[in-house]
């Protein structure tokens, strides 16, 4: 492979770290450039379905993660107005038996820390925090990136540049000028509460409450003593910041008329953080020469099927495998995107459609609830099987 076996990665989030580990494990030297001075631990909880945990196993990270994750018993969907249970899908042993991998939930910071620890201890990975790739040039023979740190610029050559720099990716903007992320007209309000705020049964579940124009997801995190809340509402107001603070009162006004149980969970929080929800544009390709995209930069999706991090982990494993299989980096990148684009576009489309179903207004929601009750656990599992099998 030309220009040595050095790979440059823009972004040290979950996708960037996973890619750096996967590449280093196959013999590449990896330089990771992260604009933040310290690791980003924003967000609250994260769901890791079997396709995600299989990727983590391939990275050598699953064992450590299982020590700080919770394996919930089931996923329950309920009506947020009358409290009726609509469907329940078994997790736990069912996921391990059917997909040979667990379904875990944890704090996003826990997953990030686990990956950062592996990357930081790997002899072939160099993490450069407070450093940004501001420009690059390249062709099918390699890439030269301009990196800036503390006002000092440096030209760095590599075989490949990976843009893992998030939904507002600057690398994507260079490959596809004008291909900006689209605001979904929604906000996610995140918080953690004490597990004692919920019934004993709910403390072991992933539970989704569906209401008109909004939904609430909660599940255990940490050692099980905390519950992660994610409330998603229709909201045209956008914010450019990650994690804008909001009070429980600001959030509760979006859930007037809901059942006491989900409203009680919301009122148990002392503070929420608000994220505007964006979706990456559908791209005809992710790569140009020896530059490619990964994770949210390539296919950022709405959160309704909990596959944002999982799809980035899948990207990382696939990309490393393809780059290790040939000396021609450009050819490897074409093979990578041929494998990944159809699946991630299907995920984006599914997430969009699930969001419409979750937020159906009355009277359409009555039909939705009836269908969910009819398909039951087996139907939910069938609907998600293509995702979990990978």
Break the fold down into its secondary structure elements and pairings.
Blueprint (H helix, E strand, L loop, with lengths): L5 E5 L3 H12 L3 E6 L10 E4 L1 H10 L2 H5 L7 E6 L5 E6 L1 H8 L4 E4 H14 L3 E5 L1 E9 L2 E8 L2 E7 L1 E4 L6 H6 L6 E13 L10 E7 L2 E8 L4 E9 L9 E3 L1 H5 L7 H8 L4 E8 L11 E3 L2 H4 L8 H17 L4 H30 L5 H26 L1
Parallel strand pairs: 1-2, 1-11, 2-7, 4-13, 11-18
Antiparallel strand pairs: 3-6, 4-5, 8-9, 9-10, 12-15, 12-17, 13-14, 14-15, 16-17
Helix pairs in contact: 1-5, 1-10, 2-10, 10-11
What is the CA-atom radius of gyration, in angstroms? Answer: 21 Å
Strand adjacency order, main sheet:
5-4-13-14-15-12-17-16
What would you give as the CATH superfamily of the largest domain? FAD/NAD(P)-binding domain
> In DSSP terms, counting alpha (H) and pi (I) runs of 4 or more, how many helices?
12
The termini sit apart by: 29 Å
- What is the succession of H and E elements? EHEEHHEEHEHEEEEEHEEEEEHHEEHHHH
Helix content: 25-40%
Number of domains: 2
What percent strand? 25-35%
Q: List low-pLDDT spans.
A: none
CATH top level of the largest domain is: Alpha Beta
Mean pLDDT: 94
Which structural class best describes the helix and strand composition? alpha/beta
Number of strands: 18
Q: What is the overall silhouette?
A: globular
Describe the structure.
With 390 residues, this protein is an alpha/beta fold. It has two domains: 6-42 and 107-181 and 280-353, FAD/NAD(P)-binding domain (3-Layer(bba) Sandwich); 74-104 and 183-278 and 354-389, D-Amino Acid Oxidase, Chain A, domain 2 (2-Layer Sandwich). 37% of the residues lie in helices and 29% in strands. The protein has twelve helices and 18 strands. The chain has helices spanning 14-25, 50-59, 62-66, 92-99, 108-121, 170-175, 248-252, 260-267, 296-299, 308-324, 329-358, 364-389, and strands at residues 6-10, 29-34, 45-48, 74-79, 85-90, 104-107, 125-129, 131-139, 142-149, 152-158, 160-163, 182-194, 205-211, 214-221, 226-234, 244-246, 272-279, 291-293. The strands form four sheets. Strands 5-4-13-14-15-12-17-16 form an eight-stranded mixed sheet. A five-stranded parallel sheet has the order 7-2-1-11-18. A hairpin with a 4-residue loop joins strand 14 (214-221) and strand 15. Helix 1 packs parallel to helix 10. The chain is globular. The two termini are 29 Å apart. The model has no long low-confidence stretch (mean pLDDT 94).
